Amino acid sequence: MRQLRQLLLHVYVLAAVIAAGSVFVALLDREPLTLRQPMITCVFVAIVVVGEIFPLRWLRVEGREMTSSWAFAVGILLIESTLVATIAMAGASITAELFRHKAVNKIAFNAAQLVLCLAAAGWVFNVTGQSGILTDPSRSVGPMWIVAMIGAGTLLLAVNGVMTSTALVLSGQMSLAELWPKALISESHTDGALLALAPSVVVVSHRSILLLPLGLLIAFIIHRVAQRAVEQEHGATHDSLTDLWNRRAFIERLDATVALSDRSSPCRAVLVLDLDGFKAINDTLGHHIGDQILCEVGQRIVALHGIGQMSARLGGDEFATLLVHAKNRQEALDWAQTLYVALSKPYTSFGFPVQLTASIGVAIMDNDDDTSASLLRAADIAMYAAKRDSLGVHLRSRQETGHEIGRLNLIAELEGALERRELFVEYQPQATCATGAVFGFEALLRWQHPTLGLIPPAEFMPLAEQTELMQPITQFVLRRALADLAGWRARGWQLRCAVNVSAQNLHNPQFPDMVRKALHDLDLPGTVLELEITENAVMTKREVIRDVLSQLRELGARIVIDDFGTGYSSLSNMRHLPLDGVKIDRSFVRDLDSDHDDLVIVSSIIELARNLHLQSTAEGVESATAWQLLADLGCDNIQGYLVARPMTAARVFSWLQQYDPNRGVHVSSAPPRIKPRLQLVNGR
Predict the structure, then answer these.
(1) Long-range CB contact pairs, 287-294, < 8 A, 24+
(2) Distance of CA 147 to CAs 77, 129, 142, 203, 442, Å?
């Protein structure tokens, strides 16, 4: 299909050039090549060249340009013959487009287009007998001349619009039904104003060439007003940072594409992509670097554009692309994979390499009931699946469950989850490494969705952190956990509870007051509360965070860094923060008994914590061997399935009664020997 369009486009351009050449030959045969007003004509030609070099590009009709030179091109037609006008305009167009380094076929087509437009307008003046009246003292302007001027201008704009529209349709950029009304109507008011200016310019210049600047000033004002309108429209339809289309404009184009598509159309696909780990880039390197990366992402997407493609920044680090001429599903997937590879290359424009990947979801327009909303939702679901399963690129198929939900809808659902009581808390016990005695629980948020079932926190918490939902969710978990803790303590179990806290909470100066009130309402001391923060959460607004953490410590709460070793930690930051402990991420503990590198990392973290007078807690302990190794390394606490899986608050009391606190492991007199890495490499 693409090859056929290209062939038809080449044939169309050739036909236009042949038609213009034929008209030109006919004019040569019929009209003398003489100048009636040499000075005025030469000045007009010069103005036409300048106007062609600096055109305005309309946004609603992609690829169509309007120049202020139209007034002077028609002016030449009014004072000279049609032959002279076509030569002047074609010559000016070729000169300007050679200056702008356009392709030969575009230069030829545009010149042919201008010849045919002016020839059509000149034909109206010749047929009505109104040619040359403005500069002929023996003839006066009457109603017939007004009719001829309106007819010539209308025909000129019609020929110009139809020829441009046909070229764009054949190139696959827009549909015929969508484009022709825009080309013929949407910008006619400005083009018409320029054409209406032509008689005034001719009359003023014929009276005295010294008055020509008045005509130029009027043309400049019209040109400037039109330029301002173009800029305003550009701002309304494009993203100010990346210069890609914005969400509203993209959806409008997608709506039009869906409305005009049918099963016989080429494969049309919608892609939604999101950058992986972009928030960490903003947090660690700053928003200035993040903005540069977003701009480069937009440039890399546009560099891969084919015929008719359109890309937009939907918001944040989320982008979308509309493919309208893929041969089949596989070609759409191949393009998405090419884009994935392009976006995975290091970003180095700021002097150092930054590595990022993207998650790309693809939805195919292959059903009569497709809508722009359903396609975006399907692509968003596919992107979400690609991110969740680290697929890179994922195609949304109709065989997948209809209950799936994308990130955008997930946020909307999450907003009402608290009111519908779909969120609840489970608890996982924490025990001392040496004896196995349970001293507390970590509160873990869960979401029981009515149709999707149990949604893991890893899927919805990152979304909540990007919205205003984080504060009420944290407040819910905190109050629920403290209420359950108060119940256990009332039964004689002197426990404490750990609650996860996000960067949003730490950036909120009122957060300590919220914690203080929750403790006061339940008559609990601050020492029963442990707040877990991530390494990335303390990378920005350090003064605010330090003040918030200090206030929390004054309440008696313990502060622990969660998932230590997986974020962008800085020892200098840790040194100045009021910390009580670190939690070793489960990724280092899972293969502790078989992975030498993990053993080295865990040993180093435990030693670092000990030297900083911090307690160490290992997450993800699932085997007795790992527990024994951690005990021998001097780890303080453990948490994992080997002790117990997360459980509801109702089950905690019965589990505590059945749990054997004397199941601790034997602590060796010396920690396990860690072999030098060189010996392992050499196999000794």
Answers:
(1) 289/350, 289/354, 291/241, 292/347, 292/349, 292/350, 293/347, 293/354, 293/356, 294/241, 294/242
(2) 16, 11, 9, 18, 85
403: pLDDT confidence band, cut at 50, 70 and 90?
A: very low
Tokens of 159: 């020929």
Q: How many CB atoms lie within 10 A of CB 86?
A: 27
> What residues form DSSP beta bridges with 354?
347
Q: Is the pLDDT of residue 244 over 80?
A: yes
The residue assigned the tokens 């309309």 is 58
Average pLDDT of the residues in 59-83: 67
Would you call 353 exposed, middle or buried from its count of C-beta atoms within 10 A (0-12, 13-18, 19+)?
exposed
> Do 530 and 566 contact (CB within 8 A), yes or no?
no
Nearest to 532 by CA among 493, 506, 494, 566: 506
Rounded distance between C-alpha atoms, residue 292 and residue 35, angstroms: 56
Neighbouring-strand partners of residue 431: 438, 638
- The one-letter code for the residue type at 406 is G
Directed axis angle between helix 372-388 and helix 407-417, to 10°?
A: 90
Which residues neighbour 209 within 8 Å (Cβ) at sequence distance 6 or greater?
A: 39, 40, 43
C-alpha span between 312 and 249 (Å, rounded)? 8
Q: Give this prediction's pTM.
A: 0.53
Q: Is the pLDDT reported for residue 101 higher than 50?
A: yes
Close Cβ partners of 212 (under 8 Å, ≥ 6 residues apart): 40, 43, 201, 204, 205
Fill in the amino acid letter for 618: A
Among the listed residues 441, 454, 509, 499, the one whose alpha carbon sits nearest the alpha carbon of residue 474: 499
360 bridge partner residues = 273, 393
- The separation between the first and the last C-alpha atoms of the chain, rounded to the nearest angstrom, is 63
**Alpha-helix residue ranges (DSSP H) falling in 31-129:** 38-53, 70-79, 82-99, 104-128
Distance CA 272, CA 131 (A): 57
Residue 443: what are its φ and ψ, rounded to 5°?
-80, 125
**Residue labelled with tokens 């210069």:** 243
139-178 in b/e burial notation, b at 16+ Cβ within 10 A? eeeeeebeebbebbbbbbbebbbebbbbbbbbbbbbbeeb
Tokens of 368: 């009569």
- 3 state SS of 393: strand
The 10 Å Cβ neighbour count of residue 428 is: 19
Helix (H, G, I), strand (E, B) or coil at 203: helix
Residues 6 or more apart from 171 whose CB is under 8 A from it? 5, 9, 63, 307, 308
The SS3 assignment for 578 reads coil
Kindly indicate the confidence band of residue 573, based on its pLDDT and cuts at 50, 70 and 90.
Answer: low
Structure tokens at 161: 């619009």
